[in-house]
Design goal:
mainly alpha, 3 domains, 3-stranded parallel sheet, two-stranded antiparallel sheet, 7 strands
Amino acid sequence: MSDPGDVPAALRRDVGYLGRLLGRVLVESGGADLLDDVERLRLASIEFRKDPTEARRGAVSEMVAGLDVERAALVARAFTIYFHLVNLAEERHRVRALRERARGAEPVPESIEAAVVEIRSREGEDALRYELDRLAISPVVTAHPTEARRRSVVDALRRIAGLLSTLEQAGESRTARAHVERRLLEEITLLWRTDHLRSRRPGPLDEVRTAMVAFDETIFRAVPQLYRELDRALGPDDVGAREPASRAFVRWGSWVGADRDGNPEVTAEVTRAAAGIQADHLLRGLEVVARRIASALTASTASTPASPELLASLALDEQRFPRSLVAAGAPRAAFGELQHLRWQVETFGFHLASLEVRQHSAVHARVVAELVGGGGNVLNLADLATLDRLAREGWPEGADPSSEEAADRPPTWLRCTRWRAWRCRTGRSSSTWCRCSSPGPTSRPRLECSTSCSRCPRWRTGSRPGVAR
């Protein structure tokens, strides 16, 4: 059990400040009696936590039992918001602690910079380059159907977190702090008056949209910062004035809207809609970044003339535009914010994340059996030999799903005419999942190997390393 005295002073100050703001909101919205009930229960709970005797437990229980249902709901809501605010204060304190650690001359332990320094000093530059060339990170977003918080609550907490950052930047400015405090009271009031629990169980597409909150607010912005931090560690003296020293190595995946194993609500139409929602969020994000860069990149043709190569053709402008800026003597314009946009496109493509269509192997076996025909043990029809034959020959001529189960396989699995089962010949990795970037009969599916393998005949390096085709 932690001692309150162990809580850092800055964190204790933030929690107290947010608690006072919540107290004002409670008085304004429910009266001073509501705040009194909340404070009595809070203090009694603190005393019980310090010394958990039966007498103090009884006092807390008696206090709760004395509340009618309506008042108990209000008190519970107040504590829910209080703990949300405490969590925000703790997150802000962790950010401060990390910034404080980064002020030293030495790399922060377990940071990207520390890893680069360690590999260079212990193994040498060639070993570092080897590790960078084979580096691949594939985070996968998963759904949490038990998550009860509504998106409106998540958004409100995000706005409050942003205001806390603004408050820290305001410093000693009385006017600025007063403005931020007014906004904090407004947001906490709205949070108090927002329904915190869903009235119905979220469906698969609700889960997709909830996952998009993390993408919109964090993932999309954090990815170029990750690459930039690595680039800075590799060459701090000229970072931003040269081409990046490493390639984009992150590829995102998602189970949300595609994980069919045990969830009958995830149908082919749901998977198709999930891919569309992902692409829509990504394209909107890329458009915002492109417009922002276009408005900021104001170098004139007099000082930064376009190269003849760029003027001759815009067919390869994604590659030629940065080179044109470099040739005109503006490498920082080429490898600054514009490089961030390129990293985002290289990482997310135009689809955001590969939808990992998961299904029970018995279902796969039954569907393969229906498509390839033949008797025998159904489970054996989807063995590696059958998958190898399908990889060489494709689906049998005229193969067409007739059963409801086969007809409802995702479009990335059955309706994509180029789908091929695949397994690594070396035995190092295997996959029978279709990971199309954009589902549909004209899409080009990819089967992504989790381990780089130079011996695999289907392994290709290039613009998208780590993809077996």
